[in-house]
Amino acid sequence: MGINSLIVYVHILIYGDSILKEWYDKINDALSVETLEEIRICVFGKKGILAAEFAKMKDLSGQEKGKLAKELNTHKAALMNEFTAKKITLQTEALMVAMKAEAIDVSMFSTSSQAGALHPVMETMDRIVEYFSSMNFAVKTGQIVEDDFNNFEALNLPKYHPARDMQDTFYFKDEMMLRTHTSPVQIRTMMASKPPIRMIAPGAVFRRDYDLTHTPMFHQVEGLLVDKEGTVSFANLKFILEDFLKYMFGEVEVRFRPSFFPFTEPSAEVDISCVFCKGEGCRVCSHTGWLEVLGCGIVDPNVFEAVNYKDVSGYAFGLGVERFAMLIHQIGDLRSLFEGDIKLLEQFQ
Ligand code: DAH
């Protein structure tokens, strides 16, 4: 209770004014902002207690009228002071209670948080890189916009080769293009350093293709190992690829099939026993029991000649990362990997 109100209150106690005294008590005893508001209407409202008291003036004579008016105005001001002070107290209390109830412990452990996840293609790429890094292969990146020499010529893909077809390659002017494979990173690495070389090149590649198993952009990992002449054999290549494929797919059978690539001689394509039917034969493996997963071979002498390497031997291999991801995660349509569909991606958390 403020000092002014206290004086008025004492005045009331002494001279008696029971009606108003009761309202001082009510204001002071109010327990909530809502009750206080009800009291305010009762006291200060149009039909309130003060209005009724003021109304009594009309029956009084001039002098008495003035006296009552003065008295009532003093009460009115004192009650208002009382009311305002009480309102602030109650509002502060209510705020404290609300703050306590709504307090958030930001350090508390939550189980419902949504963790992000790596895209299945990137996760597969990481696993491939992890394997070859553990075998001491350096990771090279090269560049996405390539020239004719690195993408084709130095890889023993001469001018008439069908792989250069406008149907397959995104060309810019001046014989520049989006690289169609990661093999040019072999060339760039050999041009920039002396043998021995042990490298992989993971990265995006581009071809004019779009269907169930092809997208205009996809990812490859290229591998190259070069050392002194007579030290790198097909047996070395076979050993590391078998080991790698078992690391990626678990207990699968691996077979090497003679094939052709311009940059390797001899060349092979590598199959694993079908991960879906375990080699029994199904739709995915076209009832052969085998799935083709990479290309490889012994580096063609023409490639070494193009980069001015002498008295060396080496092996190379290349694979498509999306194909690996599709086989590991049993995804049917390659295009779905690039649609950013949350429903699909959520499954790889
Ligand atoms: N560059 C080939 C492609 O894009 C993949 C490849 C096959 C790379 C055999 C190699 C290799 O290094 O030896 O299809």
Walk me through this protein's architecture.
The protein is α+β, with helices and mostly antiparallel strands and 349 residues long. It has helices at 3-15, 18-29, 33-44, 49-55, 62-102, 120-134, 148-151, 184-192, 234-249, 301-306, 321-329, 342-345; strands at residues 138-139, 145-147, 176-178, 197-206, 217-228, 254-261, 264-273, 290-299, 312-320. A hairpin with a 2-residue loop joins β6 (254-261) and β7. α3 (33-44) packs antiparallel against α5 (62-102). It is rod-shaped. The mean pLDDT is 90.
The largest β sheet comes out as: 7 strands, mixed
Gap between N and C termini, in Å? Answer: 63 Å
Helix content: 40-55%
How would you spell out the order of helices and strands?
A: HHHHHHEEHEHEEHEEEHEHH
Based on CA inertia axes, which overall geometry fits? rod-shaped
Which molecules are bound besides the chains?
3,4-dihydroxyphenylalanine
Mean pLDDT: 90
Report the β-strand fraction as a percent range.
Answer: 15-25%
Count of individual beta strands: 9
Q: Spatial order of the strands in the main sheet?
A: 1-4-5-9-8-7-6
Unreliable spans are none
Given the structure, what is the number of helices? 12
